[in-house]
Amino acid sequence: MTLIDLGELTELTDPPPTQRRRPGPGGRRVAVVVVALIALLTLAGGTPPAGRIHAIVPAALGSDLFIAADQIFTVSPMPGVTDGSQELLAYPRPDRPTVAPQRLTPLWRVPVPPGNRVYRVHPVADAGILVAMARPDTGTSQTVRLDAHTGEERWRVPGIAIMEMPDRALLRTFSDSEPNVLRMIELATAHELWSMTLSAASVDHWQREDGTLDSIVVATVDGEVQVIDPMSGAVRHRLPPPADHSSSYQQAWVTGDLVTVVRNSRTITALDVDDLAQRWQATVPTATYVTGCGPLLCAGLAGGGFQVVDPATGALRWDSKEILDIVLADDRNVLAVAQTTNEIVTIALGTGERLAEHGSWSMVSRYEYAPQVLVVRAVAEVGLVLARLDPTGAPARRLDVLPGAGGDCQSRYDLVGCRLLDGGYGIWRLPD
């Protein structure tokens, strides 16, 4: 597999000097911009279209961007106020092609309680918006349901919404000073369906193939593992802590019907989600997490590196200290970030062989699973090249040029949003 080549995009130089006359002030800079722009447009597939769906969201420095289905949100400092007050602003999703980017204006705005940081803004049924926030200095958290059309508050409850279903939401609190609570509520009214005190280090869940929530898995700080019925909140199965349990560090993850528990960063125990019967246990020093890697499991190690484990037996397939993190896996390969260079590489999942080197790209943040990842690469004076990578080992597919974009990009609902070099956020619709 060959190295992906975008030309000299990140090392553009001035054009060769001529003997005719010395360029005036700014001439060299303009020439660089023109050369870079021509190169970028060529890579992106030709001349820019007559119209595209793109927009500018005017947001001050210190603002956060959230993309929802039909709206775009920012959490921004209130203008003219210096006490740290913030507000949530809702903007319409751009839906028509224009030559110049549309400058969006707010549909509505509501204040954010002082000291709170907003972590999620998520659309739900019946024109609802869930806004989950927490106040780090007090350890308190809350989720608010707003009307998507007006911003009017419908209800407010303690805790962060960690999962939404068509008619329900699962919330948990994260306080260090008070008992924590896991709670299931009705989305329409916030009526509590059940709740339980949560002495938990981690909460994960198992969904059936049709998307139905089957089980909630809780690993407690006391060393227990519990399987919770999502309809009633009853404990279906409980596994007591092991006899040699001597530390409160424990995390659990669900991959398919397998629960993997990391205890004290030393062992991985695999359990059946149906009855918590142990399948196997493996010693993996410095393990910090376990995730599915196609048909296998990947155990991340403290300080970088990971081990690839057989989910049926726990046997080690191979390991690598050269990989910082896993990006995406399919049935055969995995996209990963190299430890020392931060370059993205493709690795054969079965053997650990490095199949392709894709160079340096910055990841576009994502919220839901997708079989591909979006990446960007900066070009001075122009903006960002947007490309798509997948685990097959194929070269990056270049999708677009994002003029004026500086980074801090995210993608959701077929939109890409990036911080602009001159302030605010740029919004672009992904090409078909």
List the helices and strands and how they pair.
Blueprint: H1 27-43, E1 54-57, E2 64-67, E3 71-77, E4 86-92, E5 102-103, E6 108-112, E7 117-124, E8 128-135, E9 140-147, E10 153-158, E11 160-164, E12 168-172, E13 180-186, E14 192-198, E15 200-207, E16 213-220, E17 225-228, E18 235-239, E19 250-255, E20 258-263, E21 267-272, E22 278-283, E23 287-293, E24 296-301, E25 306-309, E26 316-320, E27 323-329, E28 333-338, E29 344-348, E30 354-357, E31 362-363, E32 373-379, E33 383-389, E34 397-403, E35 405-412, E36 415-420, E37 425-429
Parallel strand pairs: 1-5
Antiparallel strand pairs: 1-37, 2-3, 3-4, 4-6, 7-8, 8-9, 9-10, 11-12, 12-13, 13-14, 15-16, 16-17, 17-18, 19-20, 20-21, 21-22, 23-24, 24-25, 25-26, 27-28, 28-29, 29-30, 31-32, 32-33, 33-34, 35-36, 36-37
Q: Briefly, what is this?
A:
The protein has 432 residues and is mainly beta. It contains one helix and 37 strands.
What features would you describe in this structure?
- With 432 residues, this protein is mostly beta strands.
- The chain is built from one helix and 37 strands.
- It has a five-stranded mixed beta sheet with strand order 5-1-37-36-35, with no helix packed on it.
Write down the overall mean pLDDT. 85
Strand order of the biggest β-sheet: 5-1-37-36-35
Strand content: over 45%
Question: Which residues sit in consecutive blocks of at least 5 with pLDDT less than 50?
Answer: 1-48
Q: Give the overall form.
A: globular
CA radius of gyration: 25 Å
Major sheet characteristics: 5 strands, mixed
Distance between the termini: 26 Å
Helix/sheet category: mainly beta
Helix proportion: under 10%
**Tally of helical segments:** 1
Topology, number of strands? 37
